[in-house]
Amino acid sequence: MTCFGIDTGTCTLGEADRVARDLVDLLDLPPQAIVCTHLIRGEQPHVALSLWVPPRFGGLWNELTRLTKYGTAGVASDTGRSGRPDLSAAAADAAVEHLSRRGGRAVVYPGSTQLTGTVRVGEMIARSAIARVHVVGGEPPAAGDLLETRDHVRPQWQAGELVLEIAPVHNGRFAPVELPDPTPCRADHG
C-alpha cells in the first residue's frame, strides 16, 4: 500500500497544514507525494492526515511508527495500525478516504510549491495535480484568467479528481475560496 493515515490530534487546519509540510521534510518525500487533511468528527473533533506516495517508495511505515512512540499519535496502513487506538482508527479512516479519492483537502501535491503569487488558471491546471476548478458565484474562468493564490491553494478530492474551489474577486481575477488565515468569528450570536 502506498497510502497511510497519520493522526496527531491536531485541532485546526492550520496546525495540520504545518504537520503536513513538516512530514515532507522529515520523511524526505518525493515530489509526487500527496498529503491531505481530513476532518474527524466525534466526541473530540480534530484533523487527521493522509499520505500517498508512489509505489516502491519504501521504508515509510517504519518511519511513521516512530511518530507514535510517545503515545500522542496514531498511524495506519492497509497492513496495520500503530499508536493510540483512537488516533490510529481515525488515521485509518483518513487513509481510506484518500485512497478512494472521495475526500481530503490536499496541502502537499505535485506542483503545489509553484502555486504562489498570481498564476494563470490554465497554467495551474497544466503544472499541478489540480484537475479542474469549480467557481462559486460566477462564470468559469478561461485558461488565461488570473488566479490570486494568496500562497494558499488547497484543492479537495471530489469524484477522483483534485478540484479547487475559487471565486471571482475583482477585475476579472479569481482567488481560492479558502482563506490562508481565516479570522475566527467572535460575534455574540445569542
Structure commentary:
It is a single chain. The protein is of the alpha+beta class. It contains four helices and twelve strands; from the N terminus they run βαββαββαββαβββββ. A six-stranded antiparallel sheet has the order 5-4-1-3-2-6. Strands 8, 10, 11 and 12 form a four-stranded mixed sheet that branches. A hairpin with a 2-residue loop joins strand 4 and strand 5 (80-83). Mean pLDDT is 91; it is low at 185-190.
**H/E element sequence:** EHEEHEEHEEHEEEEE
Task: Specify the helix fraction band.
Answer: 10-25%
Helix and strand composition category: alpha+beta
| Rounded average pLDDT | 91
Low-confidence stretches: 185-190
Give the radius of gyration: 17 Å
Strand content: 25-35%
Amino- and carboxy-terminal Cα gap: 49 Å
- Strand order in the sheet with the most strands: 5-4-1-3-2-6
